[in-house]
Amino acid sequence: MTYTVSDKTLELLANLSKLNLTEEEKRLFLKQLEEIVAYISKIKELDTKNTKPLYHSTELKNVFNENAGRKASSKRSLSQKEALANAKQKKDGYFVVPKILDKNA
Known about the structure:
Blueprint: H1 7-16, H2 23-41, H3 80-84, E1 90-91, E2 94-95
Antiparallel strand pairs: 1-2
């Protein structure tokens, strides 16, 4: 089965991703997106009646966190003053960071 991704859909995705695509890139990405959609649609063909839902890809939990299972209060947290002590910029008790989202996003 052939799946098509419209030019309008590609333009929307590029806009949301803040990408300025050339015509050559648009042709390439359209082809790749159609292949991806076709591949993903194969999942519909699978019989999953007897498959239990998978909530996580592994059974491991907090393997790198030595505090896993401990109460949150068992380890001291930084005070606001300590957290802000080495901040390059701060204002009214908060970190000042560069703006990454614009109003039109």
